[in-house]
């Protein structure tokens, strides 16, 4: 199993684009076998009766899930609005609840962590003809809408709804996020088709039209003011029913939902209602779960909370602890700003960077900081598309003797008294612990090392913008799909130096201590990625870029932050946590009451 979803306790077998800086701080209904006896009786015109053979045929009943009941989801936050297109709509809780009544082109599988189609027959790619680059340099994307896809009132979902969604987003009177959509230069609308042409090729089309609006229901209403506390007609498994401010939001079953369970053939959803209860304090949230007042929670994933929840597993709880999308990494500064922090900095030396890679015991970090709940990362790619990861940093095993050899080579190569000064945020407990653990690790390899931590506002302010660190540590956020994975490579782009550009590391930038054939090739790869939409070509480029970053030890991926969810599995079936932005409600249409 890939590291992104590997966990210590897994009882059951998704933002618009890529990344952001983190500065901080089943069981089925049982039935007996059917005994079937077939008897053929004589017709009126015959004088004989032919009885069936004296046999009994036993057949296995079809798998069937029970309908009805309610699931109660506990959350510490209440949404500021129910309209995901307006300010406040990017709040995570809006998406968590929105999984119940909103649908779009794509969703994120909690099993594969890959994009899968939702309202369309397949996700468009160059290989299936859904995406083409035109002779004039534009790019056309085509969707075929599922024939069975309808709104909750029975109205078919059509290309007009896609066009209306685009027009709404681009409406200059609305405070909607228009990024990428503004690059659409033309559209073609069909009954069950929609295609659009963008001014230039970009893989960012992957996350467009993540939610579709019903033209027949919204047109003529006040889009900005009418849907903050209520919803338009649903195209998801449930419909909005009630919002008791400060207490709960309830969703009720959409009887016209078009999706069926592939395993059983039954129409979804199974539940009658899903209620989201808002419980502000983590302790109170966990206590409500303990008391079975809520069925499912996704609390703050600190090790104490995780261990508290895991202690409930003998009573019927199931706890999933997963690598989340936020991934921590050690990195190096390549500009002269590092000398302000450490006059003996030798980060220009590959030998010095390899020494650090072999000196850091990532297993100790995950054991001490994350209580051994997840495995260390061997590549940043795991946080985006785990199936594409080559685990390129696996070449740097923890080995103090090897680290010492590389350090000796760095001393000889540079002719300097090389040392490391480590900087990160002082008001993040995990990072403080990390810095303390590093002291003994580097000492074991005989490498001079010291900590110089700062408040997060200073570290992510002047220090970050001006490159005033030697060896540093912070986190980035990954997202599924190729668009996120392509975008993260901008942060090491030699042609994009900070503070105006994205490359705060200053690797390969003008004036950098490292400018060579590797930085030159990486810059070319990054440009090619941003001009390529063919999946196979992109994967080849991403693989090469990953290997360059690993072989040159530009960064050292450490671990992904934990995400966790708990469910009373003896009450709710088919729950599967999702560590992406799709979160733990991604498949709530499949949930059912095991005690029904």
Features:
20 strands, disordered N terminus, D-Maltodextrin-Binding Protein, domain 2, Dipeptide-binding Protein, domain 1, four-stranded antiparallel β-sheet, alpha+beta, 24% helix, Dipeptide-binding Protein, domain 3, 3 domains
Structure, briefly:
This protein is of the alpha+beta class and 596 residues long.
Account of the protein in words:
It is a single chain. By secondary structure, the protein is of the alpha+beta class. The protein has helices spanning 92-98, 159-170, 215-218, 282-290, 303-310, 338-341, 350-359, 362-370, 400-414, 429-444, 456-466, 482-488, 517-530, 535-551, and strands at 34-36, 57-59, 70-75, 106-108, 115-117, 131-133, 139-144, 184-189, 193-198, 238-244, 248-253, 273-278, 296-297, 317-332, 420-423, 449-451, 471-477, 555-568, 572-573, 592-593. The strands form five sheets. A ten-stranded mixed sheet has the order 10-11-12-3-13-18-14-17-15-16, sandwiched between helices. A four-stranded antiparallel sheet has the order 6-7-9-8, covered by helices on one side. A two-stranded antiparallel sheet has the order 1-2. The two termini are 33 Å apart.
